Amino acid sequence: MTKLSVNINKIATLRNSRGGNNPDVLKTALDCERFGAEGITVHPRPDERHIRYQDVYDVKAAIKTEFNIEGNCQEEKFVKLVLDNKPAQVTLVPDALGQITSNHGWDTIKHQSYLQDIIGVFKEAGIRVSIFVDPVLEMVEAAKTTGTDRIELYTEAYATGYKADREQAIAPYVEAAKLANKLDLGLNAGHDLDLENLKYFADNISGLLEVSIGHALICDALYLGLENTIQRYLYQLRKG
Ligand SMILES: CC(=O)[C@@H](O)[C@H](O)COP(=O)(O)O
Ligand SMILES: NCC(=O)COP(=O)(O)O
Protein backbone atom coordinates (compact mmCIF):
# COMPACT_ATOMS: atom_id res chain seq x y z
CA MET A 1 0.00 0.00 0.00
CA THR A 2 1.31 3.45 -0.91
CA LYS A 3 1.17 5.91 1.97
CA LEU A 4 0.12 9.51 1.45
CA SER A 5 2.32 12.02 3.26
CA VAL A 6 0.97 15.56 3.05
CA ASN A 7 3.57 18.31 2.62
CA ILE A 8 2.40 21.33 4.62
CA ASN A 9 4.98 23.84 3.36
CA LYS A 10 2.37 25.88 1.51
CA ILE A 11 0.29 26.35 4.67
CA ALA A 12 3.35 27.90 6.29
CA THR A 13 3.93 30.11 3.24
CA LEU A 14 0.42 31.52 3.59
CA ARG A 15 0.81 32.02 7.35
CA ASN A 16 4.13 33.81 6.92
CA SER A 17 2.69 36.23 4.39
CA ARG A 18 0.89 38.09 7.22
CA GLY A 19 3.14 37.37 10.19
CA GLY A 20 0.42 35.95 12.47
CA ASN A 21 -0.66 32.35 13.00
CA ASN A 22 -3.37 32.02 10.38
CA PRO A 23 -3.53 29.42 8.97
CA ASP A 24 -2.20 27.43 11.91
CA VAL A 25 0.47 25.02 10.66
CA LEU A 26 0.25 22.70 13.65
CA LYS A 27 -3.54 22.50 13.49
CA THR A 28 -3.33 21.77 9.76
CA ALA A 29 -0.89 18.92 10.37
CA LEU A 30 -3.22 17.40 12.97
CA ASP A 31 -6.24 17.91 10.69
CA CYS A 32 -4.42 16.23 7.78
CA GLU A 33 -3.92 13.19 10.02
CA ARG A 34 -7.55 13.30 11.16
CA PHE A 35 -8.67 13.42 7.52
CA GLY A 36 -6.65 10.31 6.63
CA ALA A 37 -3.10 11.39 5.75
CA GLU A 38 -0.62 8.67 6.69
CA GLY A 39 2.27 11.05 7.17
CA ILE A 40 3.30 14.68 7.33
CA THR A 41 6.16 16.10 5.28
CA VAL A 42 7.97 19.38 5.84
CA HIS A 43 10.79 20.85 3.81
CA PRO A 44 12.42 23.61 5.86
CA ARG A 45 14.73 25.85 3.86
CA PRO A 46 17.51 27.97 5.36
CA ASP A 47 15.58 31.23 4.80
CA GLU A 48 12.55 29.77 6.66
CA ARG A 49 10.27 31.31 4.05
CA HIS A 50 7.72 28.61 4.69
CA ILE A 51 8.27 25.95 7.35
CA ARG A 52 10.25 27.48 10.22
CA TYR A 53 12.65 25.47 12.30
CA GLN A 54 10.37 25.93 15.34
CA ASP A 55 7.43 24.46 13.32
CA VAL A 56 9.42 21.25 12.95
CA TYR A 57 9.75 20.85 16.73
CA ASP A 58 6.07 21.71 17.25
CA VAL A 59 4.80 19.31 14.58
CA LYS A 60 7.06 16.48 15.71
CA ALA A 61 5.80 16.79 19.29
CA ALA A 62 2.14 16.60 18.24
CA ILE A 63 1.61 14.23 15.31
CA LYS A 64 1.10 10.48 15.48
CA THR A 65 1.74 9.45 11.88
CA GLU A 66 5.09 9.25 10.08
CA PHE A 67 7.04 12.49 10.08
CA ASN A 68 9.24 13.11 7.04
CA ILE A 69 11.71 15.99 7.11
CA GLU A 70 13.12 16.89 3.72
CA GLY A 71 16.00 19.20 3.04
CA ASN A 72 19.58 19.97 2.24
CA CYS A 73 21.89 18.05 4.54
CA GLN A 74 24.84 20.24 3.51
CA GLU A 75 23.34 22.81 5.91
CA GLU A 76 24.58 22.12 9.45
CA LYS A 77 21.40 23.63 10.90
CA PHE A 78 19.37 21.09 8.98
CA VAL A 79 21.39 18.16 10.29
CA LYS A 80 20.93 19.40 13.87
CA LEU A 81 17.21 19.93 13.33
CA VAL A 82 16.78 16.36 12.09
CA LEU A 83 18.89 14.83 14.85
CA ASP A 84 17.01 16.86 17.49
CA ASN A 85 13.64 15.71 16.21
CA LYS A 86 14.35 12.13 15.15
CA PRO A 87 11.59 11.87 12.53
CA ALA A 88 10.54 8.52 11.06
CA GLN A 89 12.31 9.54 7.88
CA VAL A 90 14.71 12.16 6.58
CA THR A 91 14.77 12.82 2.84
CA LEU A 92 18.02 14.32 1.63
CA VAL A 93 17.60 16.81 -1.22
CA PRO A 94 20.50 18.55 -3.01
CA ASP A 95 19.00 22.04 -2.99
CA ALA A 96 20.99 25.18 -3.65
CA LEU A 97 20.55 28.25 -1.42
CA GLY A 98 17.58 30.39 -2.44
CA GLN A 99 16.13 27.81 -4.80
CA ILE A 100 12.40 28.37 -5.46
CA THR A 101 11.74 24.66 -5.22
CA SER A 102 13.68 21.42 -5.59
CA ASN A 103 14.69 20.86 -9.18
CA HIS A 104 17.02 17.86 -9.36
CA GLY A 105 18.07 14.69 -7.61
CA TRP A 106 21.47 13.72 -6.22
CA ASP A 107 24.36 12.75 -8.41
CA THR A 108 24.91 9.60 -6.39
CA ILE A 109 28.13 8.77 -8.21
CA LYS A 110 29.85 12.14 -7.72
CA HIS A 111 28.61 12.51 -4.13
CA GLN A 112 28.90 8.82 -3.17
CA SER A 113 31.37 9.24 -0.35
CA TYR A 114 29.64 12.33 1.10
CA LEU A 115 26.28 10.54 1.00
CA GLN A 116 27.68 7.44 2.68
CA ASP A 117 28.97 9.58 5.55
CA ILE A 118 25.89 11.70 6.12
CA ILE A 119 23.49 8.78 5.71
CA GLY A 120 25.54 6.96 8.33
CA VAL A 121 25.02 9.87 10.75
CA PHE A 122 21.22 9.72 10.42
CA LYS A 123 21.02 5.93 10.47
CA GLU A 124 23.17 5.84 13.58
CA ALA A 125 20.46 7.98 15.19
CA GLY A 126 17.81 5.43 14.17
CA ILE A 127 16.29 7.58 11.42
CA ARG A 128 15.20 6.01 8.11
CA VAL A 129 16.90 7.75 5.20
CA SER A 130 15.61 8.44 1.72
CA ILE A 131 17.51 10.33 -0.97
CA PHE A 132 15.99 12.36 -3.79
CA VAL A 133 17.02 11.03 -7.21
CA ASP A 134 16.10 11.47 -10.85
CA PRO A 135 14.83 8.35 -12.65
CA VAL A 136 18.25 7.56 -14.10
CA LEU A 137 19.47 3.97 -13.75
CA GLU A 138 23.08 4.86 -12.93
CA MET A 139 21.88 7.17 -10.13
CA VAL A 140 19.58 4.50 -8.70
CA GLU A 141 22.33 1.90 -8.85
CA ALA A 142 24.83 4.14 -7.06
CA ALA A 143 22.16 5.09 -4.50
CA LYS A 144 22.27 1.52 -3.26
CA THR A 145 25.91 1.73 -2.19
CA THR A 146 25.32 4.96 -0.23
CA GLY A 147 23.52 2.86 2.39
CA THR A 148 20.23 4.72 2.02
CA ASP A 149 17.07 2.83 2.97
CA ARG A 150 14.96 4.40 0.25
CA ILE A 151 15.06 6.68 -2.75
CA GLU A 152 12.48 9.32 -3.60
CA LEU A 153 11.98 9.59 -7.34
CA TYR A 154 11.75 13.23 -8.44
CA THR A 155 8.50 13.26 -10.41
CA GLU A 156 8.52 16.75 -11.95
CA ALA A 157 9.43 15.37 -15.41
CA TYR A 158 6.63 12.80 -15.18
CA ALA A 159 4.10 15.45 -14.16
CA THR A 160 5.17 17.79 -16.96
CA GLY A 161 5.12 15.05 -19.62
CA TYR A 162 1.90 13.40 -18.44
CA LYS A 163 -0.52 15.50 -20.47
CA ALA A 164 1.30 15.10 -23.78
CA ASP A 165 2.16 11.38 -23.54
CA ARG A 166 1.78 9.63 -20.21
CA GLU A 167 3.30 6.34 -21.39
CA GLN A 168 6.44 8.10 -22.49
CA ALA A 169 6.49 10.22 -19.34
CA ILE A 170 6.36 7.25 -17.00
CA ALA A 171 8.77 4.97 -18.90
CA PRO A 172 11.99 6.04 -17.10
CA TYR A 173 10.22 5.77 -13.73
CA VAL A 174 9.09 2.21 -14.46
CA GLU A 175 12.68 1.21 -15.22
CA ALA A 176 14.07 3.07 -12.20
CA ALA A 177 11.49 1.40 -9.94
CA LYS A 178 12.29 -2.07 -11.32
CA LEU A 179 15.94 -1.52 -10.56
CA ALA A 180 15.21 -0.16 -7.06
CA ASN A 181 13.05 -3.21 -6.33
CA LYS A 182 15.79 -5.51 -7.60
CA LEU A 183 18.37 -3.77 -5.41
CA ASP A 184 16.01 -3.91 -2.42
CA LEU A 185 15.86 -0.12 -2.16
CA GLY A 186 12.60 1.25 -0.76
CA LEU A 187 10.75 3.53 -3.14
CA ASN A 188 9.08 6.92 -2.52
CA ALA A 189 8.08 9.57 -5.03
CA GLY A 190 7.14 13.20 -5.10
CA HIS A 191 7.01 16.61 -6.74
CA ASP A 192 4.09 17.96 -8.73
CA LEU A 193 1.97 14.87 -8.27
CA ASP A 194 -1.71 15.79 -8.43
CA LEU A 195 -5.24 14.40 -8.68
CA GLU A 196 -4.89 13.92 -12.42
CA ASN A 197 -1.51 12.19 -12.67
CA LEU A 198 -1.31 10.30 -9.36
CA LYS A 199 -3.33 7.18 -10.13
CA TYR A 200 -1.47 6.36 -13.35
CA PHE A 201 1.83 6.75 -11.52
CA ALA A 202 0.81 4.58 -8.57
CA ASP A 203 -0.68 1.93 -10.86
CA ASN A 204 2.49 1.60 -12.91
CA ILE A 205 5.23 1.86 -10.32
CA SER A 206 5.66 -1.35 -8.40
CA GLY A 207 6.72 -1.22 -4.79
CA LEU A 208 5.79 2.43 -4.31
CA LEU A 209 5.85 2.90 -0.52
CA GLU A 210 5.05 6.60 -0.13
CA VAL A 211 4.15 9.71 -2.07
CA SER A 212 4.62 13.16 -0.56
CA ILE A 213 2.33 15.77 -2.03
CA GLY A 214 2.01 19.43 -1.16
CA HIS A 215 1.57 22.13 -3.76
CA ALA A 216 -1.29 20.64 -5.80
CA LEU A 217 -3.03 19.16 -2.77
CA ILE A 218 -3.14 22.48 -0.93
CA CYS A 219 -4.32 24.24 -4.11
CA ASP A 220 -7.11 21.66 -4.50
CA ALA A 221 -8.10 22.18 -0.87
CA LEU A 222 -8.99 25.81 -1.66
CA TYR A 223 -11.84 24.57 -3.82
CA LEU A 224 -12.65 21.17 -2.35
CA GLY A 225 -11.82 21.60 1.35
CA LEU A 226 -8.93 19.83 3.08
CA GLU A 227 -10.83 16.74 4.23
CA ASN A 228 -12.45 16.09 0.87
CA THR A 229 -9.14 16.71 -0.92
CA ILE A 230 -7.18 14.25 1.21
CA GLN A 231 -9.91 11.66 0.73
CA ARG A 232 -9.71 12.17 -3.04
CA TYR A 233 -5.94 11.70 -3.09
CA LEU A 234 -6.28 8.55 -1.00
CA TYR A 235 -8.94 7.30 -3.40
CA GLN A 236 -6.55 7.79 -6.35
CA LEU A 237 -3.99 5.66 -4.54
CA ARG A 238 -6.39 2.94 -3.48
CA LYS A 239 -9.01 2.49 -6.20
CA GLY A 240 -8.58 -0.49 -8.53
C1 LIG B 1 11.71 17.52 -2.52
C2 LIG B 1 10.51 18.03 -3.18
O1 LIG B 1 10.26 17.80 -4.32
C3 LIG B 1 9.55 18.83 -2.41
O2 LIG B 1 9.80 18.81 -1.07
C4 LIG B 1 9.53 20.23 -2.82
O3 LIG B 1 10.84 20.65 -2.91
C5 LIG B 1 8.73 21.05 -1.85
O4 LIG B 1 9.43 22.15 -1.46
P1 LIG B 1 8.77 23.59 -1.67
O5 LIG B 1 7.47 23.59 -0.93
O6 LIG B 1 9.78 24.52 -1.13
O7 LIG B 1 8.55 23.76 -3.16
N1 LIG C 1 8.75 15.37 -1.77
C1 LIG C 1 7.81 16.07 -2.54
C2 LIG C 1 6.93 16.88 -1.68
O1 LIG C 1 7.02 16.84 -0.47
C3 LIG C 1 5.88 17.73 -2.25
O2 LIG C 1 6.17 18.23 -3.51
P1 LIG C 1 5.00 19.11 -4.20
O3 LIG C 1 3.74 18.26 -4.22
O4 LIG C 1 4.81 20.34 -3.34
O5 LIG C 1 5.52 19.40 -5.59
TrEMBL record:
**InterPro entries on file:** Aldolase_TIM (IPR013785), PyrdxlP_synth_PdxJ (IPR004569), Pyridoxine-5'_phos_synth (IPR036130)
**Where 3-amino-2-oxopropyl phosphate is bound, by residue?**
7, 18, 192, 214-215
Pathway(s) the chain acts in: Cofactor biosynthesis; pyridoxine 5'-phosphate biosynthesis; pyridoxine 5'-phosphate from D-erythrose 4-phosphate: step 5/5
Q: Report keywords, A-Z.
A: Cytoplasm, Pyridoxine biosynthesis, Transferase
GO MF term list: pyridoxine 5'-phosphate synthase activity
- Pfam families tied to this protein: PdxJ
> What EC class does the entry list?
transferase
The record lists the catalysed reaction(s) as:
3-amino-2-oxopropyl phosphate + 1-deoxy-D-xylulose 5-phosphate = pyridoxine 5'-phosphate + phosphate + 2 H2O + H(+)
Q: Where is the active site?
A: 43 (proton acceptor), 70 (proton acceptor), 191 (proton donor)
EC number(s) recorded for this UniProt protein: 2.6.99.2
Q: Where in the cell is it found?
A: Cytoplasm
The answer to keyword tRNA-binding applying to this record is: no
Judging by the UniProt lineage, the source's domain of life is Bacteria
List residue numbers at the site (Transition state stabilizer): 152
Mind telling me which NCBIfam families this protein's record contains? Answer: pdxJ (TIGR00559), PRK05265.1-3 (NF003625), PRK05265.1-4 (NF003626)
Q: What does this protein do?
A: Catalyzes the complicated ring closure reaction between the two acyclic compounds 1-deoxy-D-xylulose-5-phosphate (DXP) and 3-amino-2-oxopropyl phosphate (1-amino-acetone-3-phosphate or AAP) to form pyridoxine 5'-phosphate (PNP) and inorganic phosphate.
Complex and partners? Homooctamer; tetramer of dimers.
**What is the protein's given name?**
Pyridoxine 5'-phosphate synthase
Organism for this UniProt entry: Pseudopedobacter beijingensis
Corresponding gene?
pdxJ
